[in-house]
Design brief:
Helix content is 32%, strand content 14%. It is of the alpha+beta class. Mean pLDDT is 86; it is low at 118-130 and 382-389.
Length: 457
């Protein structure tokens, strides 16, 4: 029988419904509807017919022939991935239907054929990467399509304005398990939710167009307008050695490794622009494993896919202090490579005084002072993972410099932190960072942040 989400117990025996953990995750769903489009009548829904069930059965019979080694897709324990293990999901392959795995197998084989195609242009001179730009872009396209093509996806097309839309797998910045899963068709030949065409034009092509003709926003008379950045191009040639960057123009170097140990000389960088992890909530490296196991298949030689997830600068437990320790080491390394007149720039926001204290301590120990701070809009409150959670709508952009540069402003301690508005709260916290860096020893920073935010409440 088809039951609603609110049905918790069997009407006959009274026992609570339980998920059957003995089945692979993709087999725990039963087909209940097919969504299609008729040229005459438009969108339609029908129950699966026998021929539809036969197609699914044929795909399941071919699943073992995909050639994916389960050992390459083992789920490792982590703050977010533990929700998979609790549900008996020990392998990332189980998160995909058989048809989705067949699609991935074909995509990987096509990529391999593409890499040997004589029509591809040679990689840039002195490039550190042997992969063609075409192959790299298509691999990233397939990777990003995974977020819309897994049995973790749900259906959000309940509005006439946008029927058929797919809620992607990480709409909540965590593993969530839909009551009604949706098996998408990534090769549907149109720009529809989650299809390769839609993602290609919306992400790959759109990014390339912007890179050739960058457009930014600026405020004029209280209104936001788009404006072209004349003469600016986001492009260049990749080189393998730092020394090659000292001559010529539009050259870049890509390094993979720990930000706490940069392979760069002292006092060599004009500006560092980054985005620190969000303290205690989003376990980036743990969630990234969902994509990493597939990127290893798509681009096996493009990167070192065996990095240690446990060394990231996100507290697994707020009280263990890992965030401040790891971030402090990263900030110290940023200070080492930054020129004395250079700038260190990033965005930040958080309600928790411990998050602000950890950030301030890391900056203080590294030897930075605040030059300026700007408040900008952050994530939209309609985002599923923050809706209804009193989330901040703004980020503060912190512009910092080495303490010995003499560039610090004389920031005053806020008389109180505005806790009534997101913009005011973020601005006051940015001001407090500047004041604390100028006037407080490391040992007093956490207590002062607790006091500042307690006064605001």
């Amino acid at each position: 029988p088809i039951l609603t989400r609110k049905s918790k117990k069997c009407a006959n025996c009274g026992q609570p419904y339980r998920e059957d953990l003995t089945k692979p995750y993709y087999q725990r769903y039963e087909p209940v509807a097919i969504v299609g489009k008729c040229e005459t009548h438009g969108l339609f829904f029908v129950p699966p017919r026998q021929k539809d069930l036969d197609i699914i059965a044929r795909a399941d019979a071919q699943r073992a022939q995909c050639g994916f080694d389960p050992a390459d897709f083992t789920v490792a324990p982590g703050p977010k991935s533990k929700s998979l293990l609790v549900r008996g999901i020990e392998n990332y392959l189980d998160l995909f239907s058989s048809r989705q795995l067949l699609y991935l197998r074909e995509a990987i084989q096509n990529l391999e054929n593409l890499s040997s195609s004589p029509r591809l242009s040679a990689p840039p001179r002195n490039s550190a990467s042997p992969k063609s730009v075409t192959q790299l872009n298509l691999a990233l396209l397939i990777s990003t399509s995974l977020e819309f093509n897994t049995m973790l996806c749900g259906y959000k097309g309940d509005k006439k304005r946008r029927p058929g839309a797919i809620r992607h797998a990480f709409a909540y910045h965590a593993y969530s398990f839909p009551y009604t899963a949706l098996e998408n068709n990534p090769v549907y030949p149109a720009r529809r939710s989650g299809t390769l065409q839609s993602l290609f034009y919306g992400r790959i092509a759109r990014g390339r167009i912007w890179a050739a003709n960058p457009i930014e926003r600026k405020v004029e008379d209280g209104r936001t307008v788009k404006t072209a950045i004349t003469g600016e191009v986001d492009a260049g040639t990749e080189y393998a050695d730092f020394a090659d960057l000292q001559t010529g123009a539009r050259r870049f170097l890509l390094l993979q490794g720990s930000s706490a140990a940069l392979d760069l000389p002292d006092d060599s960088v004009d500006a560092i622009v980054t985005d620190p992890p969000y303290f205690d909530s989003v376990q980036y490296s743990d969630l990234a494993a969902f994509f990493r196991v597939w990127l290893r298949q798509l681009l096996p030689e493009a990167a070192n896919w065996a990095y240690a997830e446990t060394e990231s600068a996100v507290d697994r437990r707020v009280q263990d202090g890992q965030y401040a320790d790891v971030l402090g080491g990263i900030f110290a390394e940023c200070k080492r490579v930054l020129k004395e007149d250079g700038r260190f720039i990033f965005t930040y926001h958080h309600w928790n005084p411990k998050g602000w204290a950890a950030l301030t301590i890391a900056l203080k120990q590294a030897g930075f002072v605040l030059v300026n701070r700007y408040v900008v809009h952050a994530e939209n409150l309609t985002s599923r993972h923050i809706v209804g959670q009193n989330a901040l709508q703004h980020d503060v952009i912190l512009v910092l410099a080495p303490a010995e540069s003499g560039a610090a402003r004389d920031w005053e301690r806020p008389s109180t932190i505005d806790t009534q508005t997101s913009e005011g709260f973020t601005r006051d916290c940015g001001t407090a960072v500047g004041w604390a860096l100028n006037h407080l020893p490391v040992g007093e920073i956490e207590a002062e942040w607790q006091l500042l935010l307690a006064e605001g409440w």
